[in-house]
Amino acid sequence: MKSKTSLINARDSAAGDGCTDDTRALQKALDGGNKTVIIPDGIYLVTEALRVFSNTRITAGPNAVIRLADGAGKKLENWIVCNADARKGNSGITIEGGAWDANCRANPRGEEHAPGAFSGVAVSFINTRKLTLKNMTVCNPDSFFIRLGDSEDFKVENIRLLNLYPRINQDGVHIGGGCRRGLIRKIHAISPFTPNDDLVALNADDDVTRHFNRGMRCGPIEDIVIDDLYADSAYTFIRMLSQDNPIRNIRAANLHGGVRVNLLNLNRWRFPRGKGNISNVTVKNVAIRKMPAQNTFPDTIERLPLCDIGLKINNFIIENFVRLPADCTQAATFAVENDCQNDLKINGLTAEQREQLIGTMPSASWNAARNGISANGIDKISLASGGFRRLELNCR
């Protein structure tokens, strides 16, 4: 017979006064799994990661803050919360509500490749099934707000990202190899310049020796739905990184707000030209503006295209792309430079856009019957400005 889930109020043993170390009290409430743990309003300081077992639900109050204590970032695993067994795996975990504050000002990450160095990650789940993170605010990490690896059938939704201290590599939701059948929905950055890297990163091939990637692996990323992303001035909205491992069956919709570098970053990073294994990607309903760079290289970054494609990709479709007013118009709408044989179809352009695009592509031609441009060559493709109705790109 399946045991009943027990209900535990963490306030029975935790102080929640913002001064007491509540790590042991909260962990004791979580130990064993098969329970619902209520964390009422209050400020709970933790000095080690809270480890969540299978079949556990955490429900935190609207004014509950779980904060990494000053100086607690001393070793790699000292994120705020994680699953209990990354090696064997966990399932049936739900975390709902509360603010989860990594307190990066008092917990800077260590050197990237030093053994055991603190990673600066706030929330980490590796090797999970049926994980749900929802209605949470994640605050002030020194690197990733949330990272998932080797996780299937997950939901990350209605997450607010708050960042008072911009740092490099500060991804919002970072997805590593082995992740499948996931929903990432309603991820809103509620502070300027947040995140200071990718709002959503899908990295099938990455450097897993860096401290914020340790415990992750390279591998396929498949069947991911991304919906309703907003930021006032994110660094990048969606990143897809692949050399050999596939990223496929990705559906993204309703991307809106401002970005300093790329809306879509599919550049080749350190990979050879023509690499990448990305297919069946659809992006719909984009309303975006390119923002001033606000960094030491404004001339370089402000000229980077909104959609930067340097990897091999097939069945890539973008529909209903709008550039908002107050746009930084020196940045191109999209650019393709992947040394591949590219077949591009695009429609919904003005006459001026059409002439500009064809002028940069020797293999391009206007198809009046389809009211679109077709190209088939190894041209560098660049649309300098404006939006479009539909784009389809296939590489060979």
Present the secondary structure layout.
Blueprint: E1 6-9, E2 17-21, H1 23-30, E3 35-39, E4 42-46, E5 50-52, E6 56-60, E7 64-68, E8 81-83, E9 90-96, E10 99-101, E11 123-139, E12 146-162, E13 173-175, E14 179-189, E15 198-203, E16 221-241, E17 247-266, E18 278-290, H2 298-301, E19 307-309, E20 313-323, E21 334-336, E22 342-347, H3 351-359, E23 365-367, E24 372-377, E25 381-383, E26 388-395
Can I get a quick summary?
The chain has helices at residues 23-30, 298-301, 351-359, and strands spanning 6-9, 17-21, 35-39, 42-46, 50-52, 56-60, 64-68, 81-83, 90-96, 99-101, 123-139, 146-162, 173-175, 179-189, 198-203, 221-241, 247-266, 278-290, 307-309, 313-323, 334-336, 342-347, 365-367, 372-377, 381-383, 388-395. With 396 residues, it is mainly beta.
Question: How would you describe the overall organization of this protein?
Answer:
With 396 residues, this protein is mostly beta strands. The chain is built from three helices and 26 strands. The chain has helices at residues 23-30, 298-301, 351-359; strands spanning 6-9, 17-21, 35-39, 42-46, 50-52, 56-60, 64-68, 81-83, 90-96, 99-101, 123-139, 146-162, 173-175, 179-189, 198-203, 221-241, 247-266, 278-290, 307-309, 313-323, 334-336, 342-347, 365-367, 372-377, 381-383, 388-395. Strands 12-13-15-16-14 form a five-stranded parallel beta barrel. Strand 23 (365-367) and strand 24 (372-377) form a beta hairpin. The longest helix is centred in the C-terminal third of the chain and has 9 residues, at 351-359. It starts with 5 loop residues before the first strand and ends with a strand.
